[in-house]
Amino acid sequence: MPLAKTVAVDKDDGSAFSRDIRRVNKEEITVKTILETLTENGSFKTLLSTLNMVGLSETLKEPGPFTLFAPNDAAFQRVDLEEITRDKENLSSVLRYHLVTGKMMASEVNGNESIYTECGKSLTVHLEEGLPVIDNGKYVKTDIECSNGVIHVIDNVFLPQFSGWYCACC
């Protein structure tokens, strides 16, 4: 059964969190799990499909907390999806390379040089033209709060075979 958290919102303060919630002004709302949030958004069909292929969708229903760097459908168009999904062990490694145990807001991510992922390799964090870049991906949207963690939407698929290759010096 999915984990949900109910919170009270006093007003719509114009923040992304308030806009994403849909119901505000002293109403009780339910914050969805990472998996529910991805499903409802509609921009993560490929990610959801691949998560289901290797059973990781169940992980994203658990209490966590987790940080998910979520490639949207456009990001998956930049990689050879057939090659990535051919080997389930490789696919699992690719997907776990997007998952971090613990809740890390964008400001915390940006303050690190590397972040250890669930696949056992670290993402590289650096600035490029003043903007944070995580491995080879840039933020599309950050700090989407969920009951079991946070989602950061990214514009690229991280590939663990290139772990540590991305850096500001190259």
CATH first level? Mainly Beta
Q: Write down the overall mean pLDDT.
A: 83
The number of domains: 1
Tally of contiguous helical segments? 7
User: Segments where pLDDT lies below 50 for 5+ residues?
Assistant: 1-26, 165-170
SS-based class: alpha+beta
Strand content: 25-35%
Shape: globular
**Helix percentage range:** 25-40%
Largest sheet: spatial strand order: 4-3-9-8-7-6-5
Compute the gyration radius: what is it? 16 Å
Query: Distance between the terminal alpha carbons, to the nearest Å?
Result: 46 Å
Write the layout of secondary structure elements.
Blueprint lengths: L4 E4 L7 H6 L6 E4 L2 H8 L3 H9 L12 E6 L1 H4 L4 H6 L1 H9 L2 E3 L4 H5 L3 E3 L5 E7 L2 E4 L2 E10 L2 E6 L16
Parallel strand pairs: 3-9
Antiparallel strand pairs: 1-2, 3-4, 5-6, 6-7, 7-8, 8-9
Helix pairs in contact: 3-6
Can you tell me about this structure?
Strands 4-3-9-8-7-6-5 form a 7-stranded mixed beta sheet. Strands 1-2 form a two-stranded antiparallel sheet. Residues 1-26 and 165-170 have low confidence and may be disordered. By secondary structure, it is α+β, with helices and mostly antiparallel strands. The longest helix has 9 residues, at 45-53. It has helices at 16-21, 34-41, 45-53, 73-76, 81-86, 88-96, 106-110, and strands spanning 5-8, 28-31, 66-71, 99-101, 114-116, 122-128, 131-134, 137-146, 149-154. The protein is globular. It has 7 helices and 9 strands, in the order βαβααβαααβαβββββ. Helix 3 (45-53) crosses helix 6 (88-96). Helices cover 28% and strands 28% of the residues. It has a single domain (34-162), classed as FAS1 domain. The termini are far apart. Strand 6 and strand 7 form a beta hairpin.
